[in-house]
Amino acid sequence: MPTVLLTAFEPYDSWTENSSWLTLMELAQQLPATPRITTRRYPVEIGELRRRLSTDLAANYDYVLHLGQAPGSAGVQLEAIGINLLGGATAWQGEAEPLEVDGPLAYRSRLPLVTWATKLRQAGIPSCVSYHAGTYLCNAALYLTHRLAEQQQLKTRCALLHLPLETSQTLHGNPNQPSLPRAQLARAVRLILEELATEPTNSAAGEVPA
Ligand code: PCA
Predict the structure, then answer these.
(1) Which SS3 state, helix, strand or coil, does residue 179 take?
(2) Which among 36, 1, 60 has a CA at the least distance from the CA of 203?
(3) Distance in angstroms (rounded) separating the CA atoms of residues 109 and 39
(4) What is the C-alpha separation between 24 and 6, in angstroms, rounded?
(5) 146 Cα–ligand 1 center, Å
(6) Least confident among 34-43, 55-64, 85-94
(7) Of 76, 67, 71, nearest in space to 23 by CA
(8) Which among 6, 7, 10, 12 is the best mutation to test ligand 1's pocket, defined by most ligand atoms within 8 Å of the CB?
(9) pLDDT of residue 203
(10) Pocket of ligand 1, beta carbon within 6 A
(11) How many Å from the N-terminal Cα to the C-terminal Cα in the chain?
């Protein structure tokens, strides 16, 4: 049975919740029987994220799905590219530094994101493939997972789902922000897990040229 590491993030900046964690909690009420899923909640802190990824990825999962919150996004963004830059939560928080001084500029997900986005839209969930995940911790998770998989010759394939706010996050502040209810966000993840349960697993490791 394929194995999946499914991660979400803690709240960060001024947020008291993170839609990725709310989604994972909703999903965890009824996890699908296949694939075999391991869940994690990561802090939004780069040193700790590196340590946690390094430990967790040693299990050589078939797939890693990172969930993260993208305030302002109106749908589920399937992030195709992790870039070798670390900046702040917002673009104006100073110059971005390399995540890995000797690392490639970018990694591209080897998972069928276009197919997934189509499947989500057919299910009535707004979704698109995105080619810029920002320069904060979600991008770092995507980039570093590819980097570690390459360095440790893992079979792991990885994608990052950037989720809109969960609707409850917009009811007592953040008015007029786009959001989706947690049931729909969890359904989006469940549909992708269904795809992974049937996706041919692949033992090839390494970098795919961007
Ligand atoms: N979103 C931030 C970091 C953690 C999260 O959930 C991001 O988009 O990078």
Answers:
(1) strand
(2) 60
(3) 20
(4) 8
(5) 17
(6) 85-94
(7) 67
(8) 12
(9) 44
(10) 9, 12, 18, 20, 44, 68-70, 134, 136-139
(11) 30
